[in-house]
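Researcher: Sequence of MmgE/PrpD family protein follows. Predict its structure.
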Amino acid sequence: MSSPPRVHAEQPERTLAAFVADLTFDDVPPDAVETIERAFVDTVGVTLAGVRADAGVRAASVATSLTPTADGVSVLGTGETASLTDATLANGTAGHALDFDDLSWAMDGHPSVPLVAPILALAEHLDSSGEDVITAFAAGFETECYVAEPVSPTHYERGWHPTATFGTFGATAAAATLLDLDVGETQVALGIAASMPSGLKRNFGTMTKPLHAGLAGRSGITAALLAAEGFTAEETAISGPRGFWDLYADGAERRADPPGDPWRLVETGISIKAYPCCYFTHTSIAAVETLVEAHSISHEDIDRIEVVTSRGAGDALVYPEPKSGLEGKFSMEYAVACAATRDRVDLDAFTDDALDDAAVQRVRALVSFEVDESLPYKSNRTNVRLTTTDGTTVEETQSIPPGTPETPLSEAELRAKFVDCATRSVSTSVAETTFERLLSLRDEESVRDVLAPL
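Model: Prediction complete. Tokens:
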């Protein structure tokens, strides 16, 4: 493996553009390649499920009605095509529609969904190889993290949705890689992207949250295509006065390490979700499942459940009495109640109809949720205390959710999740074959051929 591409310390934008433009497949560490392949598996799977969700259906309908064309690229799981940008909007929205897509604390959000949608659209259009798209993903992920580091977590605390904001830069870098832009063009593309990020946490619990991912991917392709046509942008649109860092978080709080040094894909990695809801609920769900199983507790015998976790959870989980399945994904009370009453906290737990389950509603009303101000803002640590009607109290503390790089889903678990998601749009045989091909994506000569059955 060669050393990371050259960087320029004097200007963050130039440093980043040089890294992206010079990156080759051989530069990407083997561990990072494996992480990227698993990310593609997971993201394509949740996209094939998300296209059947309300947000996915509506986004696909708009995309295909705007640009019906036989020369377009695939809107996954629909048999329809749309333009590069509109297909990216639809696929990105579908990929985030169920909140089942992966995340990384290296950028405080969901890294893959704003990358995979534009990468697959361009890969189908250009007939790119597996090595090409892995390289594009690596460029995009490291870009998301490089832009995030100087302003996180302040950026998130101020109300921005990092999947949308940092994801726009990542999508731009990924598109620039596949379009083979040079250093100057890539820097322009990133400068254009600096005028595009948006996405408010205020819209969590609605269809607009997954739309953020679709918009980020669409913006990334647009920025890269404009740069390729000779568009211009200010050289310091990210780092300069009144640039992205200044406006989105009152300036850079610290300097980012050069992209690829260290590799964020290796150092922090990507966490694949075990549950289709806000990640801040996952340790609490797992803790309740542990208590219920270890002590053979029936939901009928629960008197109260007390949850104490971080300020980040308090900011994100704002629906104590959810009125829809989407709101339920951002409700600690509802998620914990599902863990105590259902066999599995799966996709079916977050439908509108599931909210009416009498047992879940009874337990939800018994859940209290408090913030421990002493914990780091984005800590996943939770303490769950469960008391039964006979006065017995049991307690569980958990800091690491399932599916992290430290506690990864096994290949069998990843396959089960993929097949469960994908078969909502394609046959089991297609799902199984696609899983195998994506898991060895580096060996594929044509990503277009991988996508064709979908």
